[in-house]
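just leaving the lab so this will be short. below you get a single protein, a line of residues and a line of whole numbers that encode the local backbone shape. id like you to explain what the token line says about the fold, in plain words if possible. thanks a lot i owe you, the record is right below:

…
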Amino acid sequence: METKRIFIAIKINNTDQICAIFRQVQLDLKDEWIKWVNLKGLHITLGFIGATDVRKIGLIVNRLKSSACNFSPFRLQLKSVGAFPSLSKARVLWIGVDSDDLIYELRKDILKQLEYIVEISDTRFSPHLTIGRIKHGVKNPDEVKRVLESHESWEGEELLISNFVLMESKLTKHGPIYEVMDHFELSESASH
């Protein structure tokens, strides 16, 4: 069986503000062992599906088109820099996303559309842009925490979200390569 490692996401285009905060955090933490993401691949994951039988992809695409028709374009604000699981035990560095309920409703609708086709973990959804990963811990946890705290009040621009995508993630020794498989335009005439 041929499979593809896929997920659903909102792709975020680089802006001057995103590039500036990304470069500043990189510079502030240049002595740490952090694997920085490629800015061209910035996205908010709405649902990670994982290895999927390629024969199901057509059905997934049709269901995602249905979801897109249910939602109008919406705005979200980039806000704060932080880490999962916490600032003192950073494993994933992120730029935060502040949005009204529409991003949560969109995700919920996508999960419902796909519930009998594929399994998507319905864990607590925390929209964010991953900017770096820490695999083997940091040299100076207090300094990492201090740097992240210094950027907690950062605020980026408001972005208009008019579509989402189905992406394939190809794992390589240099990190994942993301390839857009399909775009789903949100509907101007939707009730949400």
The mean pLDDT is 92. The first strand starts at residue 3 and ends at 11.
